[in-house]
Write a structure and sequence with these properties.
binds xanthosine-5'-monophosphate, 9-stranded mixed β-sheet, Rossmann fold, alpha/beta, 20 strands, 6-stranded mixed β-sheet
Length: 513
């Protein structure tokens, strides 16, 4: 399959470049600066990402590009453009101020294939501290802005381009046009990467990989593990056995509803109610990372015990998706919260990993789910953290607090499903993630009838996002919030105050813990 290689110099937006290329129905791989697959004959073009580095700084990545330049089309973005200029006889200069924000592009060469369909005054988005002050010999400016004379440039005799703005971010309104010009127009992508093409090839690959063996996998109710199981199930039928563990920290009725949905899909699922064990081990623990560790450890132990009972299993299916892997591979990746997945292979079982979604972004996983005929209710489910409501109870987790939070959360989520926006979609559909958070270390004073109350506050959290890396608080209608708050306070014993979280990520995170 044709592919674009993205050399990742550690920019915040490298993943976004990857997603945009995939939106153009073109497969791409994000690799470290020196990770270009020299022997891969299916590469049709190369994109060099931005970076927190300055090309002038000691230790900045300067990979040898000799085997690439002149042989394949290359597009440098920001640092990538500066690196190409700096290493080929041009000049990059440190500026005293950062060139940051929106700017209007003046087109210098409307016939250049990179700029087809882009007209002068198009909005682009800049974010760089260095700037190119002289181009290498044989290169010329094809676009500029008021502050950045070399905003876009091209080589005369080689397929090399550079842009100092970021076409991958949506503030660059012509970004997709520019990337399409590069990926389709210049590199010649045939647009082969679609969910409809992925499903049969993934099934064939799974059959080849697994042969006559059996596969075991843990399900979480989330989109990734569900789509993964449906795909493996389509490939090998009842040689797949799934395990769904109830850690007692799921949403109200979720265990029962999800088990029913899995059965309707024809998956063979073993449900395990381990809630007493998890809640017992969490007693007295308030620290978020400690909670995650306990839940992660218990999860692995319970899963392994169940998996060991499945005779003849040789493979462990996992719904790992591409961003999970990119984050752990990123040259600048920092761990803010230790995310918990089904980790730790049971060694004595000698299981091998089977991860058919390992190349997909989240929106592609959903498209594959639809292609497989999964119901919308499963495919469009919001993400939910592995440790569940434990990280939405700020303070110690007790059975009573879980119950209170489940009730409040259920009212909120049901209302999000029920409220229709003018375009017909529900508030649930237009938000990335939503739920309630119980501030269990706090009591506040209220008055109900003639009685003084002294109960917990609950916080409603709803965000919009495309990948959970950044998120904005959802602008939910005031009348909707008022109705939800009334219903929670009237119906959920133990809560007498409802707040709405209006922080974005960064600097906040989506979850409270
Ligand atoms: P934050 O809170 O880091 O969340 O902005 C980003 C996304 O990750 C989810 N999340 C988790 N998922 N285990 C998980 O499986 C965890 O410990 C965990 N913590 C956060 C969160 O729900 C959001 O979708």
């Amino acid at each position: 399959m044709q592919k674009i290689i993205i050399l990742d110099f550690g920019s915040q937006t490298t993943q976004l470049i990857g997603r945009r290329v995939r939106e153009l129905n073109t497969f791409c791989e994000i690799v470290p600066p020196d990770g270009f697959p020299a022997d891969d004959t299916e590469v049709i073009g190369v994109i060099l990402s931005g970076s927190p580095w300055s090309v002038l700084a000691e230790g900045a990545p300067h990979p040898a590009l000799d085997g690439i330049i002149g042989r394949l089309p290359v597009l440098g973005i920001c640092y990538g453009a500066q690196l190409l200029a700096h290493t080929h006889g041009g000049t990059v200069t440190r500026t005293t101020h950062r060139e940051y924000g929106r700017a209007a592009l003046t087109i210098g060469d409307a016939n250049n294939p990179l700029l087809q369909g882009i007209s002068t005054d198009a909005q682009v988005w800049m974010s760089h501290g260095d700037t190119i002050t002289a181009l290498p010999p044989g290169c010329r400016v094809i676009g500029s802005t008021h502050d950045v004379p070399v905003a876009a440039w091209a080589a005369d005799d080689m397929p090399v381009w550079g842009v100092q703005f970021h076409p991958e971010v949506h503030h660059t309104t012509v970004g997709m046009t520019l990337l399409r010009n590069f990926v389709v127009g210049i590199c010649g992508s045939r647009g082969e990467w679609t969910a409809a093409a992925f499903v049969p090839s993934a099934i064939a690959e799974l059959r080849r990989q697994i042969g006559d063996d059996r596969v075991v996998m843990g399900l979480s109710g989330g989109v990734d593990s569900t789509v993964c199981a449906a795909l493996i199930g389509r490939a090998i039928g009842d040689r797949l056995t799934c395990i769904f563990i109830d850690h007692g920290l799921l949403r109200k009725d979720e265990y029962r509803e999800v088990m029913e949905a899995y059965r309707r899909l024809g998956l063979s699922v073993k449900g395990v109610d381990a809630s007493a064990r998890f809640l017992g081990d969490l007693a007295g623990v308030s620290d978020p990372e400690q909670k995650r560790k306990i839940i992660g450890r218990d999860f692995v132990e319970v899963f392994n015990a169940e998996a060991s009972r499945i005779a003849g299993a040789r493979w462990l299916g996992q719904g790992t998706i591409y961003p999970d892997r990119i984050e752990s591979l990123s040259p600048t990746g920092t761990v803010i919260k230790s995310h918990h997945n089904v980790g730790g292979l049971p060694k004595e079982m000698n299981l091998r990993l089977c991860e058919p979604l390992r190349w997909l972004f989240k929106d592609e996983v959903r498209a594959v789910g639809r292609e497989l005929g999964l119901p919308d209710a499963l495919v469009n489910r919001h993400p939910f953290p592995g440790p569940g409501l434990a990280v939405r109870i700020v303070g110690e987790v007790t059975e009573e607090r879980v119950r209170i939070l489940q009730e409040a959360d259920d009212i909120f989520v049901r209302a999000l499903h029920a409220y229709r926006c003018p375009d017909g979609r529900s508030l649930y559909d237009i938000t990335w993630q939503a739920g309630a958070v119980l501030l269990a270390d706090i009591r506040t004073v209220g008055v109900m009838g003639d009685e003084r109350t002294y109960d917990y506050p609950v916080v409603l959290r709803a965000v919009t996002s495309t990948d959970a890396m950044t998120a904005d608080w959802a602008r939910l209608p005031h009348d909707f919030l008022a109705d939800v708050a009334d219903e929670i306070i009237n119906k959920v014993k133990g809560i007498n105050r409802v707040c709405y979280d209006i922080s974005s990520k960064p600097p906040s995170t989506i979850e409270w813990e």
